[in-house]
């Protein structure tokens, strides 16, 4: 079986009608044709053009299209800090914070950004100004999620994600709004700072962070935090599953970025279609090697007779490596049917008093 690793730009040519290229049954490729349905925030709108309200995504507007709506919201809470990002860039390029409308106007004059007529698109979101701090520093979580099918949804969470730390202690003062070493966790930003540590790269493994939280906050609330992250991930994928072109040749490894606030509430900040596979430390290189190895073992069946895209995409447990099943819609539907058949009088499962049983269709 052949597999193709394409960039987000070249994938358009692969699936273009004009290219004349067609994938054969023994080929798989690492993007769905319209994977941007999930990764571009300017597509998170309903049929009326309004942003979908999700309580795990910060309040967000598109500029210049939503400039007047943003100004209205800004004036309701004039002391709020906002973070602005260009839609078409990555690695922290072009990001800045504002807490006054005059700052936005001044910036627009410098960049020829003239609301509401400019063609350049930016995302402006309410800044999470109460992040959970460890050692006084802000961090975010980078988690890898593998999707092998959107209909039915089949997705996996990688256990070897990591936390990315800022190199300078967090300070919510307005005097520090321009200090990206305080506010942005992107490695491409932080490694330019004087305090960057090239040995550990300012990263913690998710396992170490979870152990720290269990010791400082307790196991119950830590488990609840990661259950919430898994729930948000599944629902974000379900939200776009009806719009994704579910080509059987495709799989996707998304990079999910979460920020945890001081109430241990996770916020989904961004989903990346092509998370960086370059390494900054030796442990980083080992982790990403394992990620690719485990990913290949799932998307390419190891049994020769199944080596084409027509297999059922349910890998053996021993082939998952460090991936854990996050959600399998097909198995969940089968579980529901089996549960209905086993329900006795009063809606109880025969042979069990609590009416519950572990389900292999989710991470729980």
UniProtKB/TrEMBL annotation:
<dbReference type="Pfam" id="PF03133">
    <property type="entry name" value="TTL"/>
</dbReference>
<keyword id="KW-0493">Microtubule</keyword>
<dbReference type="GO" id="GO:0070740">
    <property type="term" value="F:tubulin-glutamic acid ligase activity"/>
</dbReference>
<keyword id="KW-0969">Cilium</keyword>
<keyword id="KW-0067">ATP-binding</keyword>
<dbReference type="GO" id="GO:0000226">
    <property type="term" value="P:microtubule cytoskeleton organization"/>
</dbReference>
<comment type="subunit">
    <text>Part of the neuronal tubulin polyglutamylase complex which contains TPGS1, TPGS2, TTLL1, LRRC49 and NICN1. Interacts with PCM1, CSTPP1 and LRRC49.</text>
</comment>
<dbReference type="GO" id="GO:0015631">
    <property type="term" value="F:tubulin binding"/>
</dbReference>
<keyword id="KW-0963">Cytoplasm</keyword>
<keyword id="KW-0966">Cell projection</keyword>
<dbReference type="InterPro" id="IPR004344">
    <property type="entry name" value="TTL/TTLL_fam"/>
</dbReference>
<keyword id="KW-0206">Cytoskeleton</keyword>
<dbReference type="GO" id="GO:0036064">
    <property type="term" value="C:ciliary basal body"/>
</dbReference>
<protein>
    <recommendedName>
        <fullName>Polyglutamylase complex subunit TTLL1</fullName>
    </recommendedName>
</protein>
<keyword id="KW-0547">Nucleotide-binding</keyword>
<keyword id="KW-0436">Ligase</keyword>
<feature type="region of interest" description="Disordered">
    <location>
        <begin position="342"/>
        <end position="364"/>
    </location>
</feature>
<comment type="similarity">
    <text>Belongs to the tubulin polyglutamylase family.</text>
</comment>
<dbReference type="GO" id="GO:0005524">
    <property type="term" value="F:ATP binding"/>
</dbReference>
<dbReference type="GO" id="GO:0005874">
    <property type="term" value="C:microtubule"/>
</dbReference>
């Amino acid at each position: 079986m052949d597999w193709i690793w394409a960039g987000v730009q070249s994938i358009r040519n692969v699936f273009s009608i004009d290219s004349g290229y067609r994938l054969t049954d023994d080929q798989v490729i690492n993007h769905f044709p319209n994977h941007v349905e999930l990764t571009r925030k300017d597509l998170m709108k309903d049929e009326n053009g309004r942003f979908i309200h999700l309580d795990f995504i910060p309040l967000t507007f598109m500029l210049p299209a939503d400039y007047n709506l943003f100004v209205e919201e800004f004036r309701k809470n004039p002391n709020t800090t906002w973070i602005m990002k260009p839609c078409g860039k990555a690695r922290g390029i072009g990001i800045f914070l504002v807490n006054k409308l005059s700052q936005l106007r001044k910036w627009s004059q410098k960049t020829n950004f003239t609301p509401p007529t400019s063609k350049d698109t930016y995302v402006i979101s309410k800044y999470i100004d109460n992040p959970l701090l460890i050692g006084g520093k802000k961090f975010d979580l980078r988690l890898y999620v593998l999707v092998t099918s959107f209909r039915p949804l089949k997705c996996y969470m990688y256990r070897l994600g990591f936390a990315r730390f800022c190199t300078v202690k967090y300070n919510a003062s307005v005097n520090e709004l321009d200090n990206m070493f305080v506010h942005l966790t992107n490695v491409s930003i932080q490694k330019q700072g004087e305090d960057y540590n090239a040995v550990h790269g300012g990263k913690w493994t998710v396992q170490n962070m979870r152990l720290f939280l269990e010791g400082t906050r307790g196991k119950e609330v830590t488990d609840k935090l990661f259950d919430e992250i898994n729930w948000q991930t599944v629902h974000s994928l379900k939200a776009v599953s009806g719009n994704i072109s579910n080509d059987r040749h495709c799989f996707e490894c998304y990079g999910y970025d979460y920020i945890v606030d001081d109430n241990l509430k996770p916020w989904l900040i961004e989903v990346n279609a092509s998370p960086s596979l370059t390494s900054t430390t030796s442990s980083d290189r080992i982790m990403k090697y394992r990620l690719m190895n485990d990913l290949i073992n799932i998307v390419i069946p190891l049994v020769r007779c199944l080596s084409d895209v027509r297999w059922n995409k349910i890998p053996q447990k021993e082939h998952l490596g460090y991936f854990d099943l996050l959600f399998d819609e097909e198995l969940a539907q089968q579980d529901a049917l089996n549960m209905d058949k086993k329900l006795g009088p009063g809606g109880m499962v025969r042979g069990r008093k609590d009416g519950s049983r572990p389900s292999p269709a989710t991470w729980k």
